[in-house]
Write a structure and sequence with these properties.
- It is a single chain.
- The chain is mostly helical.
- 76% of the residues lie in helices and 2% in strands.
- It has 22 helices and four strands.
- The protein has a two-stranded antiparallel sheet. It has a two-stranded parallel ribbon with strand order 3-4.
- Strand 1 (4-5) and strand 2 form a beta hairpin.
Length: 518
């Protein structure tokens, strides 16, 4: 990389370097301090073992369940015709607005804490069920886009050879969509590894809950850092494997001309079955918990208790999304022009996204502790705590914003960039006057994703929020931890509703962006 351009210092490269350092520093601090010798460290082997077993088991059961139902639902609405398909195409994305801990609180109050259902949703299988019905939209969205962009030639050829719908799915459509489904599945597995609220509420030990137990119950911050390092290294290995697998997958289409795929019309029995399958996903992933929370909130909500946290949540989400979007734009703009070094910056920024919020928060706290020992900062008052929290959000979610921006910039012709350079435009000018206008739709999508992700984030907010500065996620967790599920209903419902509008706007944007969409 050349830090100097034709017209002076490459400001975009410097901004990208600073942004990458900001994003990667907390994760690197966790690994560094966990590996450092510490005589007071006394890692609880049983806690670590139980955390690893619980996390892997939930990934295997809940993760595989979410991947399976997400891929099947994407295939049904993309390539089959059955009653209600147009409605299901939109509604299947609704669970994306609900964080897992909100679903856990709702099902807990609905099924066993004074609820009306005779079938309890609790323990390991309860958490796995919540992950399956709450996280499948990650696979559904990726799979739907992949199925919709597939070549009609391969499917029609298989159909003329007599292939039935199941054979079309298992032998043609699914293999072609495998890279996208794998990418969505990787997001599901990382979400499971990062989740704290649902597993903690149902009493399942995972690596995320073990970090909090080591820190608070055992008062052993170094042990918490060591468990965090284990989780972070595992996430890094998983991220590398996923990138390499996705990078090797490439499929050639049979035609460059786009046209709508002919849908396979299911017979009456299969059509009703497909409709019931999609309806069940929407019911268990969104409609039932949303309706139950709304009922409890109408009966027990006290607006005075949630007004302040609601404003705090929106304010933090807006500021965090703006800061994170700026970092993501710098990294994505640099990555488009800098080849492997740029891809390396994207990967480094993605380390935080592969780690739970609690891990990144511990890394930020550790670095602030070093700065305090050096006399650079004072105590972690409200201002510094909020700064650390915004930093953690940026380190955690910059990759989630950089991905859509990088995809949007990929449409930009290199000839246009070369022309601007020959006319004397520097990197910053090209970014502001070429990249930004062309990537504006992708920027809007990235901003929505970041707003929703920060709004739902619980572990990092729980660790770093200043005293007496609660968000909806924090007070919902506090009420649920005290078994006051009636009081937890209103803030949990607001998290759901606040995340709903951005998710629907994003879904509409994805549909319009599809080739051939009207």
């Amino acid at each position: 990389m050349a830090l100097t351009a034709a017209r002076g210092v490459d400001g975009v490269a410097i901004a990208a370097a600073v942004a990458t350092l900001i994003c990667a520093a907390p994760a690197m601090a966790v690994i560094g301090f966990a590996l450092a010798p510490n005589e007071s460290a006394n890692l609880d082997g049983a806690l670590l073992r139980d955390g690893i077993i619980g996390t892997l088991a939930l990934m295997l059961v809940g993760g595989v369940g979410a991947i399976a139902v997400g891929a099947i639902s994407a295939w049904l609405v993309s390539l089959c015709d059955f009653p209600g398909r147009r409605w299901f195409e939109w509604l299947l994305v609704l669970p994306l607005a609900a964080p897992s801990y909100v679903l856990a609180y709702s099902y807990a109050s609905f099924t066993w804490a004074g609820g009306v259902s005779p079938i309890p949703v609790s323990g390991f299988w309860g958490v796995a069920f919540i992950y399956a019905v709450g996280l499948y939209p990650y696979v559904y969205l990726a799979g739907r886009a992949a199925f919709a962009s597939q070549s009609a030639c391969a499917l029609e050829a298989a159909r003329t050879l007599g292939a039935k719908p199941m054979a079309l799915f298992t032998r043609v459509a699914a293999p072609l969509a495998r890279p996208a489904i794998a990418a969505g599945g990787a997001l599901v597995l990382m979400e499971i590894a990062a989740d704290y609220g649902a597993a903690q509420h149902f009493g399942v030990t995972t690596l995320s809950t073990a970090i909090f137990r080591a820190w608070y119950a055992h008062a052993n911050p170094h042990a918490a850092l060591q468990i965090s390092a284990v989780l972070l290294i595992a996430a890094l290995v998983f991220l590398i494997i996923e990138r390499r697998a996705r990078g090797r997958a490439a499929y050639a289409g049979g035609s460059t001309r786009w046209r709508t795929l002919p849908r396979y019309k299911l017979n009456s029995v299969a059509g009703v079955g497909a409709a019931l399958f999609c309806a069940a996903l929407i019911t268990f992933g969104a409609a039932l918990p949303l309706a139950w929370l709304a009922r409890l909130a109408l009966l027990h909500a006290r607006l005075g208790d949630i007004a302040g946290p609601f404003v705090n949540s929106l304010t933090l989400s807006a500021i965090g999304a703006a800061v994170t979007l700026t970092l993501a734009l710098a990294i994505a703009s640099f990555a488009r022009r800098a080849g492997r070094l740029g891809k390396g910056a994207l990967f480094a920024a993605g380390i935080g996204y592969a780690a739970p919020g609690a891990v990144i928060a511990l890394g930020a706290l550790t670095l602030f502790g070093l700065a305090r020992e050096a006399g650079w900062v004072g105590g972690l008052g409200a201002g510094l705590a909020l700064t650390a929290l915004i930093w953690t959000y940026a380190a955690r979610f910059t990759a989630a914003g950089a991905g859509p921006i990088d995809s949007g910039l990929a449409r930009l012709s290199k000839n246009l960039d070369s022309s601007a350079r020959t006319l004397g435009a520097g990197p910053i000018t090209r970014t502001l006057r070429i990249d930004l206008p062309i990537a504006a739709p992708s920027l809007a999508a990235a901003a929505l994703i970041l707003f929703v992700e920060i709004l739902k984030e619980l572990p990092a907010t729980l660790v770093l929020r200043p005293f007496d500065f609660d968000t909806l996620a924090v007070i919902a967790y506090a009420y649920a931890s005290d078994e006051r599920l009636l009081q937890a209903a209103a803030p949990a419902l607001l998290i759901f509703v606040a995340g709903l509008a951005p998710v629907l706007i994003l879904t509409r944007g994805i549909g319009r962006a599809r080739a051939g969409a009207q």
